[in-house]
Specification:
Membrane-bound Lytic Murein Transglycosylase D, Chain A, L,D-transpeptidase catalytic domain-like, 3 domains, 6 helices, 28% strand
Length: 345
């Protein structure tokens, strides 16, 4: 069982700057790769024991779930003060948007990074990505560099930003606690862009960088050990995900259109559900509520009843899988906003 992709036409044939897909659910919630088929979801639901110094922001960043969802799921009211020793429900189920044989997949609106080995998800991590004015580019890249404790050579564009904001203008930052690249740098073939750690872990799962992909320091260290030079890296823009197995729950995950690329989520869901012959099996009232919420986690909206048959509507059991409907228009990076070869974080 796997996730396969295929293009389709229709009135959405050229929706500017969006990637829309149906992810075929291959298995229930899975943890790290245990030799099973590629899971279609990662994460799940668990209880977290609050530690001294924790906040909704820090827990959100660590587990890839928004503060709003954490507050709602735990019936918390502002100012959201947490008490050490308290228990917090965390629901961070995410759909895996596509499958790679080997490599890294990053979905910008989802703020998630997935590592594939032998077509299986080996790991997944929440990430921080480019701000709206310093966007992370989409496209096909590869790992071009691996370096520990990299000195940050500050690009002129960021020096100009420092000057505008009245901050001290730095030209280079040596390794150490003040370096925004953290201790691990994975440079991409896109000049200046990279995947790296951070000295600001609470910024993870947010759009906070100058275009690079930022991980929690522990995750950056773990990822660094899993990657090799020339490893493929795919960066996509997919706010709307829909997953359905042959028999079982239908999930949707709706993320904010963080770069304002004109995605209409409910319209998108109807189109991809129609293409996959799921439209009659979805609770559209519930789907509309989730579209308005854009809460960034996978939630159930219906059930698929197993059928045999057609190319688009057949069973997903065994080696068969419902094709994914994909439409992508890749946006170029903002001129002058690249991290440059030295990286910016």
């Amino acid at each position: 069982m796997g996730i396969f992709s295929g293009c389709y036409g229709g009135f959405m044939g050229y929706r500017a700057a969006s990637l829309l897909l149906v992810a075929a659910l291959a298995a229930p919630v899975s943890a790290a790769n245990d030799g099973a088929p590629v899971p279609a979801v990662v994460g799940g639901e668990f209880t977290y024991l609050v530690r001294k110094g924790d906040s909704l922001a820090s827990i959100s960043a660590r587990f890839g779930v928004s503060e709003k969802v954490l507050a709602q799921d735990n019936r918390l009211a502002p100012p959201y003060r947490l008490k050490a020793g308290g228990r917090l429900k965390v629901y961070n189920l995410h759909l895996v948007p596509a499958r790679l044989e080997d490599g890294i997949l990053i979905n910008i609106p989802q703020r998630m990074l997935f590592v594939f080995r032998d077509a299986k998800v080996a790991a997944s991590y929440p990430v921080a990505l480019g701000r709206r004015d310093w966007q992370t580019p989409t496209g096909s890249f590869f790992v071009a560099q691996r370096e520990k404790n990299k000195t940050w050579i500050v690009p002129p564009s960021i020096q100009e930003e420092m000057l505008r904001e009245g901050k001290p203008v730095l030209t280079r930052v040596p390794p150490g606690p003040g370096n925004p690249l953290g201790a691990h740098w994975i440079g991409l073939s896109a000049p200046g862009y990279g995947i790296h750690g951070t000295n600001a872990p609470a910024s993870i799962y947010r759009m906070r960088t100058h275009g690079c992909i930022r991980l929690h320091p522990n995750d950056a260290e773990a990822l660094y050990e899993q990657v090799s030079l020339n490893m493929s890296v795919e960066i996509i823009y997919a706010p709307v995900l829909l997953g359905a197995p042959a028999d079982g729950p239908i999930f949707i995950e709706v993320n904010p259109d963080v770069y304002n690329r004109g995605v209409e989520p409910l319209e998108v869901l109807h189109e991809i559900a129609r293409a996959s012959e799921l439209e009659q099996q979805i609770d559209w009232t519930k789907a509309a509520i989730l579209v308005r919420a854009k809460d960034g986690v996978a939630r159930e909206v219906g059930t698929v009843y197993g059928t045999e048959g057609g190319e688009n509507g057949g069973t997903i059991a065994g080696s068969k899988s419902r094709p994914a409907a994909v439409h992508e228009v890749r946006q170029p990076a903002r001129a002058g906003a690249a991290c440059f070869a030295e990286g910016t974080g």
